[in-house]
From TrEMBL:
Enzyme kind, highest EC tier: ligase
Known EC number: 6.2.1.14
Cofactors demanded by this protein: Mg(2+)
Source organism per UniProt: Siminovitchia terrae (Bacillus terrae)
UniProt-recorded name of the protein: 6-carboxyhexanoate--CoA ligase
Length: 243
């Protein structure tokens, strides 16, 4: 599902909401209704364009364990951003690359997807906005995970962790930096295979509609394979309780 105001995204419409689910055939009605409600009730406003489509998945679904989750409470956006930079360095992103990214960052806020940033050159590989697709976490398994770790059971947490788990699950991935374009939601995260999902309480100010989604990649890996994986490889996140 994608929803916009002022026409379709490709006609210059303002992005309002997006989302997806992997469903059985019998569950399509429920999935469509969920996505319809999500698109119509977003804090960024009411859309005048919405597109909901479904595709049959023929490829085998890959199972991934959810990233480990840690939360960081910070006093200000400035401290949150400083922590994000520190975590990116710990994840393996060179400091020069981080500085280059923040120099380019204002130009990326209106994109409908993620920018791939090469850690070696410190330059974007693809600025068109890559949309990650074909990913989900079955509700009952997510509920068990959330109850076990005492985490929020809301869809926002689930969707963010599913996306971060998929994004970092490929050999070309180094780290992800993200915060929402929702003006009422100021929490963001840094994610990597090394660090897990590191939630930071303040990465922007209330009322700011500028979002961020950057995938730091090892440009010496097969980037076309990574892009195909992000767009086409179906994955389910599945948690198994440690006994």
């Amino acid at each position: 599902m994608r929803a916009a105001k002022g026409g379709a995204h490709e006609q210059g419409g303002k992005h309002i909401s997006g989302g997806e689910q992997i469903s059985t055939f019998d569950g399509i009605t429920h999935a469509v209704n969920f996505l319809l409600e999500k698109g119509l009730t977003h804090s960024k406003g009411s859309p005048d364009f919405m597109q909901i489509q479904f595709d049959c998945i023929h490829d085998p679904v890959q199972l991934l364990n959810p990233l480990g989750v840690q939360s960081h409470q910070v006093e200000s956006v400035e401290k949150g951003q400083a922590l994000a930079r520190q975590l990116l360095k710990q994840a393996g992103v060179p400091e020069k690359c981080i500085e280059a990214l923040y120099h380019h960052l204002p130009g990326y806020s209106g994109l409908g997807g993620a920018v791939l940033f090469d850690i070696h050159s410190g330059r974007p590989i693809d600025e068109r906005g890559i949309r990650v697709s074909r990913m989900d976490w079955q509700a009952d398994n997510y509920e068990k995970w959330a109850a076990y770790y005492g985490k929020p059971r809301n869809s926002r947490m689930k969707e963010a962790l599913v996306l971060a788990t998929k994004v970092t699950g490929h050999p070309a991935a180094v780290a992800e930096l993200c915060w929402s374009d929702d003006p009422d939601y100021i929490t963001g995260y840094v994610a990597s295979k090394r660090l897990g999902y590191r939630r930071i309480s303040k990465l922007k100010k209330y009322g700011d509609e500028r979002g961020c989604r950057i995938f730091f990649v090892n440009g010496r890996e097969d980037i076309e394979s990574y892009i195909h994986y992000l767009k086409k490889q179906p994955i389910f996140v599945r948690w198994e309780e440690v006994k």
